[in-house]
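W.,

You were right to be curious about this one. When I first looked at the sequence I had no strong expectations either way, so I just let the prediction run and decided to look at it fresh. Below is the sequence, 289 residues in total, followed by the output.
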Amino acid sequence: MARRKHGSGKASRGNRINAEAHALTLAVEIATAWHRGGGADRPEVPLGVPATIAAAGLLVDRTADVAAGMKSASPESFIDIARSVWAVTFSRRPDVAMSVYPLLGWLFADADGASVRQIKATADAALRAGLLEVTTTERRFDCDVFGALLGALRSRTATKVNAQMYTPGDIACALAAVALDDLEPGRSFCDDAVGTGGLFRAAVCLIRSRGLDPADMSWFGADVDDLAIAAAAVNGLIWGLGPRVYLYVGDILVHPHWSDEARARRARFLEEVDSLNNGIKVLDFLKSL
């Protein structure tokens, strides 16, 4: 995965508001494109399609090439490109696969022509609305695209974003500042209602503003929603959280020691995929789950 430079992390409130507004616009455009084609109530598909585009953008230095290649691809070719994107991503970061796979069922399904065209139309809408601008540039630290998108996909209409998973930037920043008052390298950051990772993003901004690298931290997040956790895993790639990300799907009231279980689950998963030689085989393994 292409390594991008760590900036100072300083961004004006105006920049953040503009990025958040862009994220909300993206959410509406993507959700509208999906529902316009008569899309079934399967938010994992229109969530997984932009996740794929974002992952592709992180693999290369010239995101313009990614956008051009995906725009010009046929619907069937786009599916092939998507499989390749995740194969490469998982070959480099197999730890991400366990959490992301709820978004990838459409890669394995024997979809009919109409469904494949609808997936491509959703991808085209994401590209037209500038998804790569807020997932691969410095602007990616100023918003949570997938939080807004998950809210839009779960609202009754695509134009009314339900903020069920979307933590407003100002609130997230304030909470992160309190949690990381004594910030130092190697610390852990924990959010037991992580959603798509809004507090993670705010913490990353604070960490970078102090000249530190988020990848030197350990990140723990829990939620009952597997799609929110999957989106948080994608956001972890976008925000550069590094390899020590432990995400848990489950009820923390029933499992108060969930962080230990998250470590154990990930360790077991990595043991199972350790013998697999490449990302394609990881994809095949996920298909069997």
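Here's what jumped out at me. The radius of gyration is 18 Å. And, maybe more interesting for your project: Residues 1-9, 157-165 have pLDDT under 50 and may be disordered.

Coffee later to discuss?

I.
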